[in-house]
Amino acid sequence: MVQQQVVISNSIGIHSRPATLIVDAAEKYTSTITITHGERSASARSLVRLLALKAKLGNMITVTAEGADEKESLVAVVGLIESKFGEE
Amino acid sequence: MPLKGIPVSPGYAIGRAYLYRASTAVQASNGTNRVQGSPEEEGSRLLAAIETAKRELESIVSDVEHRVGAAEAGIFRSHLALLRDPEIVGASLRATGAGTDAEKAFGDTIEENAAIFEGMEDDPLLKERASDLRDVGKRVQSLLAGRPQAVREELPPGSVLVIDELQPSDITTFDTGNIVALAVGRGGPTSHSAILAKAMGLVAVFGIGDLSAINEGAELVVDGFSGEIILAPSADVKAGFLERRAAFLAERDRLATLAREDTFTRSGKRIIVAANIGSLDELDACLKQGAEGIGLFRTEFLFMRRDQAPTEEEQFHIYKSVLERMAPKPVVIRTLDIGGDKEVPYLGLSKEANPFLGLRAIRLCLRDIPLFKSQLRALLRASHYGKLGIMFPMISSVEELRRAKVVLDDCAAELRAEKAPPEGDYKVGIMIEIPSAALVADDLAAECDFFSIGTNDLTQYTLAVDRLNESVAQLYSPRHPAVLRLIKMAIEAAHRRGISCAMCGELAGDSSMIPTLLSYGLDEFSMSASSIPAAKDVLSHCQ
Description:
By secondary structure, chain A is an alpha+beta fold.
């Protein structure tokens, strides 16, 4: 299992478009990817759970991956969040 | 007594009411006495309906991408993700497995989740997502009820669509050419339907509430500024309204024309209004909004979300295509601006206590010369295809600029020795984003061709405020006199040395700050594409 903390730096936080990009990214891997924000936690493949995290600009979240391609999948999801989902 | 709602898409329209009732027809056919199948049969009926719904949504995505735009198509990509959502599909299948029919299983799951979003009173943006869930729910339900395929609703020309709740995919089922306005009972400005209406240029008022006062075919006046809907307007009311409508359309045309033209201030000074971009996808929007160049092309995206650095060849093709698409307009490409706060494993960056004060941007490139050279060589080769400016980020001293230029000259010499095709003319500039650079701007200006002020970092470094840190973010102000003084110093130093000074930070697109920046002598304003028309308008009214 690998995990990493990351700060949300895109202005709207994990809303529809960013969450959809996370789902699209997570589906490319076989590992189980979980995102945790405070008490709430969500599968990176579930749009409704990701939205319900209410992760906003400046919030610290934790991305956890477990499985055969856990390292690559962690890099992909964290990289996506850090790239601000292509927003500016 | 006029009806009143929330204006979500501006403009004025007069038309005849078209009351939408199609969804009730679907619900009626839903109630017929179908014999419930075994748990397995109900499960596979549901999965089949979901698959068909996915195919429909895929075609909506490509249709919207074509008719409206890529950003708006993203709304339906999120609907697709809802149909793949393991929570939704899983919970529905557990219910069919336990003996519930497919309709109820899926309907209950959608409603449970929609209710969760609806309860998020503190977050209007999330609250609106209930409507997206129900849109997806309705699509699957109608397929379960035996709807053959999506039907396109025919409306008479000049219709005002009157509908209690407008779900995003509803808009795509109408021939919008015949719709002049939308009058919607529920929803607000952050709903996806409102965003679509705005992108399609339809006048729209949402959140009107009770619509029963509106009769089929009645004449309506829809004011997309005040949110008023006037029923059976008198001749006087109509005349006044048509006058305002004409003035609005003339103003819109004036802004559109202005956006296409070069910008001059009242005293005749030519000002460049350019766009900031982070990927090639944004080029169309930039040109459409009237960008006279690219003032900042961020190259970070090329380096992120991958397990090795992009090759020189790969970079060359991207730089070449942005230069070609914009030529003869100028394009400023910023070299890699990345640091320890980003996850780029192949760069081997260590975690730092203060990544914004650490090994990043030009500091990193001067440490990893092969990485830097691959980018500079790609840029030099691409310079042949357009008007290129190469910009170094995070320069804090003359020494750093000189070292970067030595590497650039090395690359040019290498390419000549390899007998590569000749490079074109290009300029070399720097970001002014560290207070020390603004303070020694005279010396820096003597050794480069242009400045571009990055106000976001300049503000953060000058005021020692991390704007991502919620506890201090309120101290972050690019209008602080200290920041403004540094900006003025940099512009004046550039002009003393005969070079131009641009700004590519958020401040450049802030209409209220443009007159001040212009009075400092700023030559070029670079901003997100959507801010360009308004900025050109403000600039053309300044002295």
